[in-house]
Amino acid sequence: MHNITPYTSPTYFIYLLLFLLPIMIGLFYGKRFRVYETFATLVILVITFFGGNMSQGFSLIAYVLVEMIIVLGYLRYKRSPNGKNNFWVFFWAVILAIIPLAIVKIDPLMNNATISLFAFMGISYMTFKSVEMIMEIRDGAIKEIKPWEFLRFLLFFPTITSGPIDRFRRFQKDVLNVPSRDEYIELLKSGTNKLMLGLLYKFIIGYVFGTLLLPKVSLLALSYRDQAPLGISWALLAYMYVYSMYLFFDFAGYSLFAVAISNFMGVKTPMNFNRPFQSVNIKDFWNRWHMTLSFWFRDFIYMRLMFFMMKKKLIKSRITMANIGYVALFLIMGFWHGETWFYIVYGIFHATAMITNDAWLRFKKKHRQSIPSNKFTKCLAIFITFNVVCFSFLIFSGFLNTLWFS
Amino acid sequence: MDVKTEIIDILKDVTGLDNVGADPDEDLFADGILDSMATVEVLVTLQDKFDIEVPVSEFDRSQWSSVNKIADRVGELEN
């Protein structure tokens, strides 16, 4: 038996719904079967991480223990009567929490199989959750985490491999609460809708773009690569759009599954996408695309960096400060995606787009009277944003690397 | 000067818009009046003006999204 990647095969859905059924019946009758929830979680985690090659499973256990020691240790420090809010203790807690992920990300560069001790599906998303907890403990927003609460949050299986990234306090509110019959029926309805939409997105539209069209346009673009400088061709343009559509429908489909299954368990996991291709500018886009990730970066990197710089009065100009923030944020996001030139360039590209957009918004504010704003300009804005975004996905896809360097 | 007027002044300073706060229930995030940068600036100014601590974690957007709501939060944090 192989490891089963969640939501990729019909088998997974059958197992899942089978295990969910008692939980759903319980919630329908106003009960949370906590022991059974734990049991179902364990079985599903075993299926996901211990099938075939067991090393993923052992890595997961080791990783979770390490993170638990760091997060709960930091909480204990923060709560101890003589515990101060020392910046360096906080700093090292965050660094330690990120180290396993950093090792996994650097691993491909080293070509050394032995150090990928911590590699398993979902390590990124668990790290986001751990860091969020540490930050909120520092702020005093989280005052109490019991070990099993930590485990339940980190190992919540509907979102374990690829998000959406929930927040501890929001998650606690849902799991400590049993929805009323009416609320639960609403959740079942919206969950079913999302499940169906997810099937359409991932297995039909995503399949058409990703499995049927993408290999064809890829071959076509490669066959034209000597015809023009940089391999530019109509086929490359087609690749850009096809890949962008595939990326959206595949990931949005997966995210819908994760939210749907959460809903069935009475948890309102936040949505990841909100019509991103209707964005009117790049800032708007990041409020609609992979939202839980971009909000995580916004709240835990960008805003904190801004807060720090503003309080310490490091830089006078607000504009410079915001721009430094964008570059830092998107570079970190680029490195997080992977240590290749195209992910880094993707990050720089988006930082540049954000900076340009801000400059344009400032210009627009000053010349409000002389710049028209109507239906046509809105369509134009959506069109431009869409193409900028698709171009960034072409960089992200790594296809240019194949086209140019192999 | 009461709290709301001061908050409106801060918002005007930060956003450069004169009509901010005309409707104290207007959603400042949905209407694009505040972005992350402006939010941080408002928070830092509120901290200095009212001598309160607003950790970024406590900054739940839905709780700080209008002049009235900001005034409520400031009131809570002052005590």
From TrEMBL, chain A:
Compartment(s) of residence: Cell membrane
Membrane topology qualifier: Multi-pass membrane protein
Annotated TM spans: 12-30, 87-103, 109-128, 199-222, 319-336, 342-360, 380-400
E.C. no: 2.3.1.-
A Pfam family: MBOAT
Pathway entry: Cell wall biogenesis; lipoteichoic acid biosynthesis
Keywords: Acyltransferase, Cell membrane, Membrane, Transferase, Transmembrane, Transmembrane helix
Enzyme class: transferase
Function (record text): O-acyltransferase that catalyzes D-alanylation of both teichoic acid and lipoteichoic acid (LTA). D-alanylation of LTA plays an important role in modulating the properties of the cell wall in Gram-positive bacteria, influencing the net charge of the cell wall. Catalyzes D-alanylation from DltC carrier protein.
Annotated family: Belongs to the membrane-bound acyltransferase family.
UniProt protein name: Teichoic acid D-alanyltransferase
Species per Swiss-Prot/TrEMBL record: Companilactobacillus mishanensis
UniProtKB/TrEMBL annotation, chain B:
Gene Ontology biological-process annotations: cell wall organization; lipoteichoic acid biosynthetic process
PTM info: 4'-phosphopantetheine is transferred from CoA to a specific serine of apo-DCP.
UniProt KW Transcription keyword: no
SUPFAM superfamilies: ACP-like
InterPro entries: ACP-like_sf, DltC, PP-bd_ACP
Modified residues (O-(pantetheine 4'-phosphoryl)serine): 36
The UniProt record lists the keyword Electron transport: no
GO MF annotations in UniProt: D-alanyl carrier activity; ligase activity
Keywords noted in UniProt: Cell wall biogenesis/degradation, Cytoplasm, Ligase, Phosphopantetheine, Phosphoprotein
CC per GO annotation: cytoplasm
Location relative to the cell: Cytoplasm
Domain Carrier: 1-78
Pfam families reported in the protein's UniProt record: PP-binding (PF00550)
Record pathway: Cell wall biogenesis; lipoteichoic acid biosynthesis
Record-linked NCBIfam families: dltC, PRK05087.1
The protein's role, per its UniProt record: Carrier protein involved in the D-alanylation of lipoteichoic acid (LTA). The loading of thioester-linked D-alanine onto DltC is catalyzed by D-alanine--D-alanyl carrier protein ligase DltA. The DltC-carried D-alanyl group is further transferred to cell membrane phosphatidylglycerol (PG) by forming an ester bond, probably catalyzed by DltD. D-alanylation of LTA plays an important role in modulating the properties of the cell wall in Gram-positive bacteria, influencing the net charge of the cell wall.
Family per similarity comment: Belongs to the DltC family.
Protein name: D-alanyl carrier protein
Organism (species): Companilactobacillus mishanensis
